[in-house]
Specification:
This is Zn(II)2Cys6 transcription factor. One of its GO terms (biological process) is positive regulation of transcription by RNA polymerase II. One of its GO terms (molecular function) is transcription cis-regulatory region binding. One of its GO terms (cellular component) is nucleus. The structure is a single chain. The protein has 354 residues and is mainly alpha-helical. The chain has two domains: 1-148, no CATH class; 163-354, no CATH class. Helices cover 67% and strands 2% of the residues. It has 16 helices and two strands. The chain has helices at 2-13, 20-23, 25-31, 33-50, 56-74, 82-96, 104-115, 124-144, 166-184, 191-207, 236-254, 263-267, 271-290, 296-308, 315-332, 337-353, and strands at residues 216-218, 230-232. It has a two-stranded antiparallel sheet with strand order 1-2. Helix 4 (33-50) runs antiparallel to helix 5 and helix 6 (82-96) packs parallel to helix 8 (124-144). It is globular, with a radius of gyration of 20 Å. The model has no long low-confidence stretch (mean pLDDT 89).
């Protein structure tokens, strides 16, 4: 529990000014065994990988959690409360750490969200868990290049759209990226819809508070340790907002293609678009590398690399990307072996094409 509170809760709370997963979830877990076992499973997997031990303890806690969770998920709607949603969201984080991501808990999270649409604007732990689930859905959408599973109407009444603090601004960018993904990977979407969302993204960037500007920004250098720009942000919440903006710009650049789902084939020969993609991808990686306290952004950097790493053509840039993923493994214990293998295959394909 201490490891979770001190080292892992910020991954969930990064856009939450009230830090529900750090401050409320552990207290609720004292009286809620299903939540407690989810935390223990997630945290023990982290501890075991840090110490290179076996993972039997994490599996045992996970099984205990499922024994309590399954009746709630299969029961009446009244059983789907904020504790259940927070539990599934934590289990999804645990699931994302695995080499083989079966997305079982993502399916459970989106089922709860779409069954009870009030969570996204309910306030408290329920809404905090809903935003975490949305970011988890965004991660899978980026990698799979498929539409979101989450019904975004759940969030329309959230107070992040009327507040003016930095956390609400970052959450708005998360929501805008979700809208971009919903439209870009949906074959029946109108082009005008995506154009309108693109304008919203640029309006966010033009109107964001001055606190979202970098404290320090240096261009990338020639040496291996400087292959990405250096971009110091004020707080982790600012890193997330700006990083998600750059990811939205990548997806929008791909979506200029008449069929976004075939964008890879269409744009491999388009150097101008590829240059734009590479610029924004380097910014996504730079923000993660330059702001070590914002560990959550390492996960997003990893997903972005898996999706668009093929645009990194220079060998030293490729080595720097691998190094960043290995640093992510050291700091977070997320399995990156499959990600590195996927990148190497993409780069090998590019070499054979040339």
């Amino acid at each position: 529990m201490r490891n979770y509170v001190e080292n892992m809760a910020l991954w969930a709370d990064i856009t939450d000014p009230h830090r529900h997963f750090e401050l409320e979830v552990p207290v609720r877990a004292v009286h809620e065994p299903v939540l407690r076992f989810a935390i223990f499973a997630f945290s023990s997997r982290h501890v075991e990988r840090q110490s290179k031990g076996n993972e039997a303890e994490a599996l045992e806690y996970h099984n205990h959690c499922l024994q309590l969770l399954i009746p709630a998920l299969s029961g009446p709607r009244v059983d789907l409360n904020d504790v259940v949603l927070a539990t599934v969201a934590i289990l999804r984080q645990h699931e994302e750490m695995e080499y083989d991501d079966n997305q079982f808990h993502l399916t459970g999270a989106t089922h709860i969200m779409n069954t009870l649409s009030s969570f996204g604007s309910s306030g408290g732990l329920g809404e905090a868990a809903a935003w975490l689930c949305l970011r988890e859905d965004i991660h899978v959408s980026l990698i799979s290049q498929k539409p979101l599973r989450t019904n975004l109407q759940s969030f329309h009444q959230s107070d992040i759209f009327v507040r003016n603090d930095d956390f609400s601004w970052a959450s708005r960018m998360v929501f805008l990226l979700a809208k971009v993904l919903r439209s870009a990977f949906n074959q029946v979407s109108e082009s005008t819809e995506l154009q309108n969302i693109a304008r919203e993204v640029e309006e966010w960037n033009a109107s964001k508070p001055p606190s979202f500007e970098p404290l320090r920004a240096l261009p990338r250098g020639k040496e291996l340790s400087r292959r990405f720009p250096e971009v110091w942000m004020l707080l982790p919440v600012h890193v997330v907002g700006v990083q998600y903006y750059h990811i939205a710009k990548i997806v929008l650049a791909f979506s200029c293609c008449p069929s976004p789902l075939l964008a890879y084939e269409s744009f491999r020969n388009s150097r101008s678009v590829e240059k734009t993609i590479r610029h924004h991808l380097f910014m996504v990686l730079a923000l993660a590398k330059s702001n070590p306290k914002a560990e959550n952004t390492l996960f997003t950097a990893r997903h972005s690399l898996v999706a668009w790493g093929w645009v990194i053509r220079h060998r030293l840039d490729q080595e720097a990307a691998e190094t960043l993923l290995k640093e992510m493994w050291t700091r977070t214990s997320w399995d990156v072996a499959a990600s590195i293998q996927s990148l190497r295959e993409q780069w090998a394909d590019e070499d054979s094409d040339s």
